[in-house]
Design a protein that fits this description.
3 helices; mainly beta; 24-stranded antiparallel barrel
């Protein structure tokens, strides 16, 4: 244990300047994982570890033969991109299943995450710690100071030593190189399974047990209210103020109780839009911090935790953590959206749904586990309840077997979030089951898996992500990676994915096979090519306009590339073309084949170290195969600009334009144009304490009459819609807000 903490200046010379720094544990001999698994690092790296009663200190001294190629930008927190970085994994329970990640670039810009072997890194996690970084003539030096109060770990008697697992990593961007200490090889499945035991951490401070994060928000709001489509109107709120509170309680220093009251997510920004022409609901990643922090405790092979189904919560609580070999996750939250999606006077106005999810997981042996999960959504007299058993078994170093079985019970009276109704009569209660099994294998060159999923006709989940019932689906993936010892190519190889789907009568439905080939080169450049071949059988139950089963064939091929040879520019993109199925046909006909061509381009420019401009454009062009007439075009343009003035002060601009331009002769897709703008000034000295000042605006091609009107000028109640128009865009929503939060820790 150190008597005092070191300073960044101590490590700018070799050996370290101060007696304190020279007392720290010195670590060198980092080993490559990529591109040359097992070889010594091409650039020398030395790390120093030490701790006091309150803090863990980690210093990295990173040398480089060409220091000018080191990528170091003033970026937003948790958005380090392709900068050179160093990081430490702290497996504080030493169960080789979960760990904290603390990561920084050469300028000390932070990123922190919770890591799990099943789900990877979750960067929604934020905690308080300190970093200092400086470029040097020989490379760069960084120092991390991590408070033990920001970690969770088991209690120990005074004077007793703890055993944690530790991994150190350096990413050398310009060489596409990742090096580790200790060695972390592809020949062993998992990262934490290869950590090193670190004994010590005696008499360290436990985490602070209470943390409160209150916020206040004031805003001016103008938005179009369409709850009653025959009476749409603009609602205005001037100098509206409200407040909320997030609280965190640490129990036994290993369980975390998070609560939220009236959460606000105005500063979150936007998601990427969904790909057009989708038969099944698209998956949208969660972006709201309350739902994604510690979400790995709820993740299972079959999804019962898809929180985008919870639209407008007011109250919520979540308990997560570990007690010995047991991992626990419990979530309870309400959703006001059902009661706000109907006009006043409707019996359901003001009502809310209630969602709860619980999961317990037990470590078995060294690297395996078994768990139970239960999820429930209740709304008025309807409900959806699902639960079951899951497991993960490590078989030697390279084999992993996972599986799960879930059963559900559903009573749909109204307002089910699912698009599939499991009962012919909605007031009846019905049930269904789903099974999943998968076997994985990986080594230095080979990665493959085979799986089987079986979903009954009556299965549904309103708390998880779900696409279709009544299917039996074997699937598999195989990839081989060549790793040349010399030359410009760092790795390359083929891969193939395939699946076959039947319903439970034995009728073949769909078949897909997707071969691909990819290559990665020096100077952060990669290229891939792929072919997608498919066969779909659609039935009258899928599209009521069909009178019999119809088989469709699709085929597309494409190429993609990415290159960032210089620190200040990155360009990527690709194109695919072929024939697919039009899942939005005219209402008088069933789906039919359409030709598709879709180029896309992404350009990221960092003209100076503190400005990051990321721009993407996707164009999708559908045409009729018989006469080459346009079926519809889809345009998606997104631009994100961030000016990071200091580590804690930033200004962010987001612009998004999406349009669908249909030919009504061939598609039922609606004409739509939507322009979104977001401007945000942020002062964030550390997570939990911040000031946000922002503007959010949306423009759409909505008919300015706001309804379908008869000749007398009155709204036609038999056609209560807000019809789109080809005219100019109308501002249908805008908000100006000021939000302040402050973190209190006791």
């Amino acid at each position: 244990m150190l008597n005092a903490g070191p300073k960044l200046a101590d490590f700018l010379v070799s050996p370290p300047a101060s007696p304190t720094a020279r007392q720290m544990l010195r670590i060198s001999h980092f080993v490559e994982r990529y591109p040359d698994d097992g070889k010594p690092s091409t650039e020398p790296t030395v790390a120093y570890l030490g701790y006091t009663h309150k803090y863990l200190y980690v210093a990295f001294v990173c040398r480089d033969k060409t220091p000018k190629l080191i990528r170091a930008h003033m970026l937003a927190r948790d958005s380090l991109g392709d900068d050179d970085t160093v990081e430490i994994f702290l497996d504080t329970f030493h169960d080789q299943r979960r760990a904290f990640i603390f990561k920084t670039n050469a300028l000390g810009i932070q990123a922190d995450a919770l890591y799990s072997e099943q789900n990877g890194a979750d960067y929604s996690f934020d905690t308080v710690w300190d970093t200092w970084g400086k470029r040097t003539p020989f490379g760069y030096v960084v120092l991390m100071r991590i408070p033990f109060a920001s970690l969770y770990f088991a209690k120990a008697d005074p004077g007793a030593m703890r055993t944690w697992g530790i991994i150190l990593q350096r990413n050398i961007s310009h060489d596409n190189e990742s090096v580790f200490w200790p060695r972390n090889t592809h020949n062993v499945a998992g990262r934490l399974t290869q950590d090193i035991e670190a004994d010590g951490f005696m008499n360290i401070a436990h985490g602070q047990n209470w943390q409160f994060e209150p916020y206040v928000l004031g805003r001016n709001l103008r938005q179009l209210n369409t709850v009653n489509p025959v009476d749409p109107y603009f609602q205005h709120k001037h100098l509206q103020a409200y407040a909320g509170l997030d609280a965190k309680f640490i129990l036994h220093n290993s369980l975390v109780l998070d609560t939220t009251l009236n959460p606000d997510f105005s500063q979150v920004g936007i998601d990427n839009p969904a790909t057009p022409n989708q038969r099944f609901p698209p998956y949208f990643p969660e972006v709201r911090p309350f739902f994604i922090e510690n979400s790995s405790y709820f993740m299972t092979p079959i999804s019962l935790y898809y929180t985008n189904n919870i639209v407008l919560p007011q109250f919520g609580a979540r308990l997560t953590g570990k007690l010995g070999p047991w991992a626990l996750g419990i979530l309870a939250v309400d959703d006001r959206n059902p009661g706000q999606a109907v006009p006043p006077g409707n019996p359901e106005f003001g009502t809310r749904a209630h969602v709860s999810v619980g999961r317990v997981n037990r470590d078995v042996g060294a690297l395996s586990n078994v768990g139970l999960i239960y999820a429930d959504r209740e709304y008025l007299g309807s409900f959806n309840r699902a639960g079951g058993l899951d497991y993960r078994a490590r078989l030697k170093n390279r084999w992993t077997l996972t599986g799960q079985v879930i059963t559900s019970e559903t009573k749909n009276i109204s307002n089910s979030t699912s698009g599939e109704q499991p009962c012919e009569v909605l007031t009846l209660t019905c049930s269904g089951q789903v099974y999943s099994q998968q076997l994985n294998y990986s080594d230095l060159h080979t990665n493959w898996w085979i799986g089987y999923n079986d979903t009954s006709a009556g299965y549904v989940t309103d708390t998880g992500f779900f696409r279709r019932p009544d299917v039996r689906e074997p699937n598999g993936y195989y990839a081989y990676t060549f790793r040349p010892k010399h030359g410009w190519v760092l790795s390359d190889g083929p891969s193939i994915y395939s699946e076959r789907i039947w319903d439970h009568t034995g009728l073949p439905l769909d078949f897909y096979i997707n071969p691909a080939y990819s290559a990665t080169f020096k100077y952060r450049t990669s290229v891939s090519a792929n072919i997608d071949l498919g066969q779909d059988r659609l039935r009258p139950v899928d599209y009521t306009i069909l009178t019999h089963n119809v088989e469709y064939h699709s085929h597309t091929s494409g190429v993609n590339f990415y290159s960032s040879p210089l620190p200040y520019i990155a360009v990527g993109g690709g194109v695919y073309t072929g024939r697919v199925i039009n899942y939005s046909p005219p209402s008088t006909s069933g789906p039919d084949p359409v030709n598709v061509t879709s180029p896309n381009l992404n350009l990221e420019v960092k003209p100076i170290g503190s400005i990051d401009m990321n721009n993407s454009y996707v164009y999708t062009h559908f045409t009729n195969p018989s006469n080459n007439a346009v079926v519809y075009d889809n345009h998606e343009l997104i631009s994100r600009w961030n000016y990071q003035m200091t580590k804690s002060i930033s200004f962010n601009l987001i612009g998004q334009y999406i349009s669908t331009l249909p030919n009504s002769q061939y598609t039922s897709a609606a004409n739509s144009k939507d322009l979104f703008a977001d401007a945000l000034f942020t002062y964030l000295p550390h997570p939990g304490t911040a000031i946000y000042f922002g503007y959010i605006g949306n423009f759409a091609n909505i008919n300015r009459a706001l309804c379908t009107r008869d000749a007398n000028g009155l709204c036609n109640t038999s056609d209560p819609i807000l019809p789109p128009t080809y005219s100019s865009l109308m501002n249908d929503s805008k908000t100006i807000y000021l939000k302040m939060t402050y973190l209190l820790r006791f």
